[in-house]
């Protein structure tokens, strides 16, 4: 079972549990030759990697018998995934290994993740051949699942044809499995066709359940990691660490450097600390390969750890853009991602914890930025203000200002992403005198600001629901900024300083529930957990029956039963598709307090 623990758009940190073994994703599975594990298995344990991948065809050919345990052979207690020989067939030609034969063999050696014996889609295969092959792969997946109750990996093939990738994903996704490797992408990687790799992944992913685990077969160079995980890959495997080492090539986060190119200092690494470039070059071939291979694995693992932190910090777009500018073909791949806006936008929150750092024209093509621009619509020319927040640096309220995102209402000047972004030439000052906000024209501005932000966030004007004359505002004494909104003396909303958007309290939830038609802003839960939700417990995905299709991660929602009776309110972790498709993990963080009305 797979669940999301943290997320930033499509990128996600998850937990995958198989046979009572847990592994945190994104994860790298180092490729191991099953009979040549030293010194790699010791390093894998030292680096605390929770899984490896090895090849069942090599095991079978080498005489490793069913009934023995692959974990014992590898001396590894974590998750072991086995490939079936498909990649060996791609490399060396046709192999004598039938699908069910290999599936039964993998089950017999206690593999945790069993891969079907699929047909590899080569770049030069005709569309007609690949179309027949993906149908055959579907049949092989179906017979593998019928044969064994084990955890089955169903590779998505399709070659260079986007429509066949989609069809392969639809076929495999209809089977009872959650693990989907994206196959046939190594030839793209070898030719630096990164954009085609991402196109293959996204065409597959959008036709699979959102709860599916996505594994990018053979995409193991750390310079490509940020883009892979930006688009929602969960697992990668790599033999690059050892293959590159054999050729004297050193992996870095931004590319590959030949050992002979170094004249003095080597890249920082515990495996290089005791060598100069000259000393490493003078080692025997086997020893040199081992040292470079261990470094290459270390760099890959460290980059993966860094990416998990970027996801936790909700900084993946900034990081992926920054890293994509290190190579023209990575930048091309980033631009390819933007062609999938209709899909990626569904997973994009209205705001993030980290600001937007402009790194080039691609920044304005991010899905959440494009959505923001589409929501604010076409407006008249706005005045130019040099500093943010704009309202602090104009003498009287104006209608529109010129921002880096186009002309926006002054009423949105503190709302994400207008204030929470940094472009070349922009500066922020700490505004000291906030007394002007006590003047009548600015009091009116602040009241209008509440209405405008509410409409932007929820899709309806606040003052169509409550009397504006009954609205009072609590403001910060230091900054003059709005903190809480009251209607008729009751607090209904809090304006977050971090992103300039509203958080609900109970009275605000009543307001939303009473004034928006079902299913707007709602998450509907199973009656089995009604009382737990009333007690303030979080909503788990397995108990969600329905939700507003317009919900995006981090949105404020109301929680209701089947009869649309208000139970609670909270902030979602998942969008509607994920809530319906995941069977494990939190869908909504419940914010009901003990003193809220019942």
Residue runs with pLDDT of under 50 for 5 or more positions: none
Mean of the pLDDT scores? 94
Structural class: alpha/beta
Distance linking N and C termini: 35 Å
Rg, alpha carbons:
27 Å
User: Please, what is the CATH homologous superfamily of the domain at 2-312?
Assistant: Queuine tRNA-ribosyltransferase-like
Main CATH class of the domain at 2-312: Alpha Beta
The largest pleated sheet is described as: 8 strands, parallel
Task: Offer a few descriptive terms.
about 600 residues; alpha/beta; TIM Barrel; Archaeosine Trna-guanine Transglycosylase, Chain: A, domain 4; eight-stranded parallel β-sheet; 21 helices; about 20% strand
How are the elements arranged and paired?
Blueprint (H helix, E strand, L loop, with lengths): L1 E7 L2 E8 L2 E5 L1 E6 L7 H7 L4 E5 H6 L8 H5 L4 E5 L2 H7 L6 H10 L4 E3 L11 H21 L4 E2 L8 H12 L5 E4 L3 H5 L3 H12 L7 E4 L8 H6 L4 E4 L1 H7 L2 E4 L2 E4 L18 H5 L3 H28 L3 H9 L3 H10 L3 H4 L11 E2 L9 H10 L6 E2 L2 E2 L11 E4 L2 E4 L11 E2 L4 E2 L11 H19 L12 E5 L6 E6 L2 E6 L6 E3 L1 H10 L6 E4 L4 H5 L4 E2 L3 E4 L8 E5 L5 E7 L3 H6 L4 E5 L8
Parallel strand pairs: 4-5, 4-11, 5-6, 6-7, 7-8, 9-10, 10-11, 14-19, 15-17, 16-20, 25-28
Antiparallel strand pairs: 1-2, 2-3, 12-13, 17-18, 21-22, 22-23, 23-24, 25-27, 26-30, 28-29, 29-30
Helix pairs in contact: 5-6, 6-7, 7-9, 9-15, 11-13, 14-15
